[in-house]
């Protein structure tokens, strides 16, 4: 497995080899901000998936499935109240979807289907027409269609194999929008651009980039918000459409993210470390068991016994010497850490120890 330090060194080498690479990677304004009130709305619903091959809900364990079937059949003119139902090709499901901003009536959206009862698989099923409601209780879309399951299950007499989740499915373009969310940008006097990663410097750079195109059109309200006003002679929509593709150099605080469970270390480009000497040695303890069987002499009347044999070996890594590590840039820092030849786990320990020593001028976030 390639170590984290090696991967970081590769990224630093790429930056050194291509001086304009970092500058060319500057994002556009539309990539780092979201427009206030221009957002998706969550929809939820309940329905029935039919046509399953005996993998549906058991009605004894899922009484709500039986009640839903009876109500659905009554709406279709079939009365089954009081009759005993013993079927396993129907499953009760919950439906979730995201209504994108400015979605118009008649457009389609994707639907996520999840089993609600004890159905073992939704493969091969079809969702009957079901409403999708918003938080206000209004119906915004109607969902229906065959479900698509990404997993599978196969088994024999003594073995079986599962891939994916059979009780979760998706219907691409499975819902038709019936109600629109009213919002008009044309009547708005200004737009508030919300930074996805709030930062004073980035907010000022966004406002400056807009003002260079349309003087006086942008104003910083706080580290997370830039107010955009229409430029003279243009509409608000025209103004934003002309500045959303402007590139802005995003500033970010120095930070190190550590995931101890996965052994992952991510450093931002502004990480700095004061001169410090580090010695890292690994400690490995190996314990092996080789029990031996002791046989008594013939006709001695003794019993066979097992004699334990244990071998313990300790390896302290050979006592690596001290190495100086200092970095005015990420490349220099990675080069110094690579000189130690550390593994990702050792790198995590070193960074935490250097932080405790006061030589690491950044925050460490442990996930």
What features would you describe in this structure?
This protein has helices spanning 4-17, 21-24, 29-32, 63-75, 200-213, 236-243, 330-338, 344-356, and strands at residues 33-35, 41-50, 90-99, 108-115, 126-133, 139-146, 152-155, 160-163, 168-177, 191-195, 218-222, 225-228, 255-259, 264-267, 273-278, 284-289, 292-294, 305-307, 310-315, 323-327, 363-366. The chain is α+β, with helices and mostly antiparallel strands and 367 residues long. It has 3 domains: 1-26 and 251-291 and 307-367, no CATH class; 28-38 and 184-243, Gyrase A, domain 2; 41-177, no CATH class. The strands form 7 sheets. Strands 2-3-4-9-6-5 form a 6-stranded antiparallel β-barrel. Helix 1 (4-17) packs across helix 7 (330-338). The longest helix is centred in the N-terminal third of the chain and has 14 residues, at 4-17. The two termini are 22 Å apart. The model is unreliable at 1-24 (pLDDT under 50).
Structural class category: alpha+beta
Major sheet details: 6 strands, antiparallel, barrel
Radius of gyration: 32 Å
Strand content: 25-35%
The geometry reads as flat
- The residue ranges in which pLDDT falls below 50 over 5 or more consecutive positions are 1-24
Relative helix content = 10-25%
Mean pLDDT: 80
Number of domains: 3
Let me know the number of strands: 21
First-residue to last-residue Cα separation: 22 Å
What is the number of helices?
Answer: 8
């Amino acid at each position: 497995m390639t170590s984290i330090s090696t991967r970081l060194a590769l990224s630093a080498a790429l930056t050194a080899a291509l001086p304009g690479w970092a500058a060319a990677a500057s994002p556009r304004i539309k990539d780092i901000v979201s427009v206030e009130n221009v957002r998706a709305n969550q929809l939820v619903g309940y329905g029935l998936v039919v046509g399953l091959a005996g993998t549906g809900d058991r009605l004894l364990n899922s009484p709500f499935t039986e009640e839903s079937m009876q109500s659905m059949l009554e709406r279709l003119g079939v009365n089954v109240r009081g009759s005993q139902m013993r079927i396993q090709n129907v499953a009760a499901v919950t439906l979730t979807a995201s209504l994108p901003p400015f979605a118009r009536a008649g457009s389609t959206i994707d639907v996520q289907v999840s089993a609600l009862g004890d159905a073992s698989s939704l493969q091969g099923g079809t969702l009957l027409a079901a409403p999708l409601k918003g938080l206000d209780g209004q119906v915004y879309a109607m969902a229906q269609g065959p479900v698509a399951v990404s997993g599978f299950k196969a088994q024999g007499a003594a073995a079986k194999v599962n891939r994916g989740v059979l009780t979760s499915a998706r219907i691409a373009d499975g819902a038709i929008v019936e109600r629109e969310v009213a919002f008009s940008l044309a009547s708005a006097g200004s737009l508030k651009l919300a930074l996805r990663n709030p930062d004073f410097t980035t907010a000022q750079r966004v406002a400056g980039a807009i003002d260079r195109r349309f003087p006086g059109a942008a104003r910083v309200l706080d580290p997370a918000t830039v107010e955009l006003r229409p430029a003279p002679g243009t509409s608000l929509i025209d103004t934003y459409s002309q500045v959303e593709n402007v590139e802005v150099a995003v500033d970010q605080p120095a930070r190190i993210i550590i995931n101890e469970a996965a052994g992952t270390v991510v450093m931002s480009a502004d990480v700095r470390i004061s001169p410090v000497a580090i010695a890292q040695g690994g400690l490995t303890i190996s314990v092996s068991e080789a029990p031996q069987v002791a046989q008594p002499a013939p006709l001695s009347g003794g019993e066979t016994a097992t004699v334990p044999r244990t071998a313990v070996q300790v390896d302290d890594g050979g006592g690596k010497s001290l190495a100086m590590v200092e970095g005015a840039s990420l490349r220099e820092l990675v080069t110094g850490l690579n000189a130690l030849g550390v593994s990702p786990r050792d790198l995590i320990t070193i960074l935490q120890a250097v932080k405790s020593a006061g030589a690491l001028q950044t925050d460490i976030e442990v996930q």
